[in-house]
C-alpha cells in the first residue's frame, strides 16, 4: 500500500495551483520547466519567473493566428517575453477582450527550433484547468520549493485518457416531465466535476433507449437565456422521455462547449463585438468544441445500455457514441428554442460545426 499520489491526483493538484496563480513544475526527459498560467499570474510571480531565466508566453495556434504570431511548433507558439514586458502585456496577449481597442500587440518574436514538448504540455494543462489557454514557461534547474512536480510523460498519457467514472449514488426524484425518474451521480476519479444521468421510467436495457447527451448550460438551463437553445432542448428532451415513459438524459458538466463558464462569458463578450461563436472561441485560443463525449458513452455503459435513439442535432455526438461502442439506432431531431436572439448563433453552428438544424 502506498500513500503517494498517482498521476491523476498530481494533475488535480496542478490544476488547482494554476487556477490560484501558483507555478507548477513539469519534469520531462528533455529537462524541467516552471509553468505559470498567464490569466492568474501576479506581478511578483512573473518577476520571480523572469529572474529564473528567459520566459516564453506559450499560446495556442488559434490565439497566435489572431495576434499574427508565427506558430513554428504547429499547435502552439512560444512568444519571447521582451525585457520590458510586464504583467499587463502578458495578459493582453492571453485575453482578447481589448483586441479591437488595442490591435497592435507586436511585432511578436516566437521561438523556432528546439523541443517544444513541455511548452505544448503546459498549454494543455492550463486549458484543462478551464482558464485561458496561455502559459508562462521558463527552464528550471533549481529546488522544488514545495511546488507540485508533474511527470510530463505520464501527464500527457493521462490528459489523453478517457475519464474513469464511479457511480456515487442514485435516488428517486419526481420531475414535472415524469414522476417516475431517478437521478444517478457519477464522479470522475480525477476529482473533476461530477456528471449526472436522469433515468425516466425503467428503460429496457436490451433495446435502444431514447437518450440525450446534454452539456451543462447555466445561462440557458437555469436563467432562460435567449442566446442559445439549451434550456428548451433540455426541457423538450425530458418531456418526450416522459411522454414515452422511458429514457435517459445525461447531464454533462462541460459548460460552454467544454471551456467553462468564465471563458464562455468571454466568448459572449466577443460576440457582442461582432464575432460569431466559432470566431470567438478561436480568438480565446480554443477549438470550436472542447467537449469530451466519451463521458456520455461511459455513463451509458455503466447504466447497462448498449444502444440509443439519440436526441441530437450534432453529428459529432453520433460519431463518438459509435466510436465508443454505443450503437446509434436512430437520430431523433431536437429542433426547439429558436429565437431572434440566437438565430445567428444557430446559423453558425449549422454552417461551421455541421449541426443539422
Automatic annotation (TrEMBL):
EC number: 3.5.4.25
Pathway: Cofactor biosynthesis; riboflavin biosynthesis; 5-amino-6-(D-ribitylamino)uracil from GTP: step 1/4
Cofactor entry: Zn(2+)
Pfam family, one: GTP_cyclohydro2
Domain GTP cyclohydrolase II positions: 168-333
Catalytic activity as recorded in UniProt: GTP + 4 H2O = 2,5-diamino-6-hydroxy-4-(5-phosphoribosylamino)-pyrimidine + formate + 2 phosphate + 3 H(+)
UniProt cross-references to InterPro entries, sorted A to Z: GTP_cyclohydro_II, RibA
Note accompanying the cofactor annotation: Binds 1 zinc ion per subunit.
Hydrolase listed as a keyword: yes
Annotated residues for binding of Zn(2+): 217, 228, 230
An example molecular function term from Gene Ontology annotations: GTP cyclohydrolase II activity
Similarity comment text for this entry: Belongs to the GTP cyclohydrolase II family.
Name of the protein: GTP cyclohydrolase-2
Amino acid at each position: 500500500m502506498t500513500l503517494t499520489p498517482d498521476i491523476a491526483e498530481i494533475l488535480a493538484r496542478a490544476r488547482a495551483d494554476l487556477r490560484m496563480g501558483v507555478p507548477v513544475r513539469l519534469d520531462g526527459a528533455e529537462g524541467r520547466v516552471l509553468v505559470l498560467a498567464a490569466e492568474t499570474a501576479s506581478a511578483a510571480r512573473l518577476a520571480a519567473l523572469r529572474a529564473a531565466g528567459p520566459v516564453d508566453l506559450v499560446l495556442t495556434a488559434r490565439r497566435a493566428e489572431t495576434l499574427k504570431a508565427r506558430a513554428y511548433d504547429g499547435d502552439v507558439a512560444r512568444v519571447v517575453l521582451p525585457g520590458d514586458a510586464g504583467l499587463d502585456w502578458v495578459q493582453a496577449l492571453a485575453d482578447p477582450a481589448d483586441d479591437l481597442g488595442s490591435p497592435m500587440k507586436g511585432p511578436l518574436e516566437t521561438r523556432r527550433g528546439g523541443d517544444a514538448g513541455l511548452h505544448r504540455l503546459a498549454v494543455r494543462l492550463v486549458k484543462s484547468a478551464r482558464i485561458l489557454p496561455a502559459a508562462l514557461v521558463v527552464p528550471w534547474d533549481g529546488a522544488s520549493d514545495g511546488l507540485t512536480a508533474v511527470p510530463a510523460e505520464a501527464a500527457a498519457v493521462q490528459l489523453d485518457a478517457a475519464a474513469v467514472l464511479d457511480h456515487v449514488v442514485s435516488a428517486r426524484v419526481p420531475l414535472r416531465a415524469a414522476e417516475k425518474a431517478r437521478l444517478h451521480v457519477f464522479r470522475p476519479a480525477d476529482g473533476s466535476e461530477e456528471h449526472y444521468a436522469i433515468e425516466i421510467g425503467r428503460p429496457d436495457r436490451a433495446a435502444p433507449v431514447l437518450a440525450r447527451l446534454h452539456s451543462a448550460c447555466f445561462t440557458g438551463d437555469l436563467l432562460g437565456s435567449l442566446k442559445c437553445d439549451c434550456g428548451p432542448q433540455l426541457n423538450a428532451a425530458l418531456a418526450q422521455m416522459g411522454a414515452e415513459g422511458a429514457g435517459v438524459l445525461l447531464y454533462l458538466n462541460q459548460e460552454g462547449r467544454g471551456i467553462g463558464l468564465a471563458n464562455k462569458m468571454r466568448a459572449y463578450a466577443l460576440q457582442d463585438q461582432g464575432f460569431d461563436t466559432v470566431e470567438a472561441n478561436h480568438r480565446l485560443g480554443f477549438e470550436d468544441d472542447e467537449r469530451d463525449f466519451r463521458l456520455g458513452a461511459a455513463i451509458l455503459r455503466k447504466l447497462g445500455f448498449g444502444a440509443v435513439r439519440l436526441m441530437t442535432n450534432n453529428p459529432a455526438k453520433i460519431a463518438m457514441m459509435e466510436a465508443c461502442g454505443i450503437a446509434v439506432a436512430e437520430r431523433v431531431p431536437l429542433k426547439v428554442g429558436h429565437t431572434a436572439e440566437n438565430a445567428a448563433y444557430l446559423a453558425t453552428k449549422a454552417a461551421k460545426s455541421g449541426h443539422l438544424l
